Amino acid sequence: LFEPTDALDISFLVQHYENDNDAGNSFAHKVVSVDPITGLAVDNPDPTATDAFGYRDPTPNDPRDTNADRDIFLNVRQFTAIGTIEWDLDVFNAAGLTLTSVTGYENTEKDATFDSDSGPTIRGTETHPDAWQFSQELRLAGETANFDWLAGFYYFEYQIDGNQRRLSAAGFRDPVFFDLETDSWALFANGEYRFNDQWRLNAGIRYTQEDKVYALNNTDFGLVFDETTVGDAAKQDDDNISFNVRVSWYVTEDHLLYAG
Q1: Are 65 and 57 in contact (CB under 8 A)?
Q2: I need a surface site. Which of 58, 99, 106, 235 has the fewest CB within 10 A?
Q3: How many CB atoms lie within 10 A of CB 140?
Q4: Alpha-carbon gap, residue 226 to 177, rounded angstroms
C-alpha cells in the first residue's frame, strides 16, 4: 500500500500459485442403458449388467471408488496481479467525490490427464488449456447529506486456447485444438436517496456488451469450426440492460422491510 498524499491511496497485489498434484481419478465408472422414450443414456440398475467391454465397477454406488490404468496428474500454474487507485477529489474542492481505478491481470496454465472410463479398458483424456484475462474498472462516487451515488465503466478481455487428445488402446489420437476470445464492456450507475432515518430509495442500471469468437480444429476427425467454415455461427454478440429499484423502510433499529 502506497500513500503518496493524504488524498491518494495506491495498492498492489501480486500472487503466484502452483499445484503439482498426482491426483486420484475424477471419473467413476457407470453402466448405462438407453431410455426408450428419450433415447438418452440412463443409469442401468441391473447388478449383472456390464458395459460394451464386459466390465462393471464392483462398487457402482460409491463415486469415490475409481479405477485408473494410467498415471493421473493435475499441474496448474497461475499468476495474478491487481492494482487499485483511490483518489479523494476533495483537494479540488469537489466535495464528497472519489475516483477509483481497479486493474487486474491473470494468467493460468494447466496440464491434466484422466482415465475417462475408470475401467480396465485403455481410455483416457489429456488436456492443456492456457488462459489469460485483463480487466479495468473506473468508478466515480459522490455523497451528500441525503444522497450517495456512483457511476462507472468496466472492460474485460479473456482468451483461452489449448488442446486435448484422447487415448485408446492404439495410442494417442490426433488432438483437438480450441480457442475462445471474449471482449466485454459495461456502463453502470447506482444511487441511494435517504428521505429520512426510516425511508430510503435505491436505484441502479447497467448496460453490458459482450462479444465472443470460437475456433475449434478437431484434427482427429478432420472437422474445423471457426469463422472461415461456419461464419457467424462461430461468433456471439450480446448486449443487456439490467436494473434494480428498491424501497427500504427501517421500522426499528432491528427490523427492516423492503420491496424491490
Answers
A1: yes
A2: 58
A3: 17
A4: 11
Taking the complete model, does pTM exceed 0.85, yes or no? Answer: no
48: left (phi over 0), alpha (psi -120 to 50) or beta: alpha
In the block, which residue shows the cell 455523497? 143
Q: Which residues of the chain have pLDDT under 50?
A: none
The answer to whether 64 and 56 are in contact (CB under 8 A) is no
Answer yes or no: are the C-beta atoms of 87 and 98 closer than 8 Å.
Answer: yes
Looking at 1-71, list the stretches that DSSP marks H as alpha helix, in order from N- to C-terminal side: none
SS3 19: strand
Q: Which helix (H) or strand (E) holds 230?
A: helix 227-230
Question: How far is C-alpha 45 from the chain's CA centre?
Answer: 35
pLDDT of residue 92: 67
- DSSP character at residue 253: T
What sign does the CA torsion over 30, 33, 35, 39 have? Answer: positive
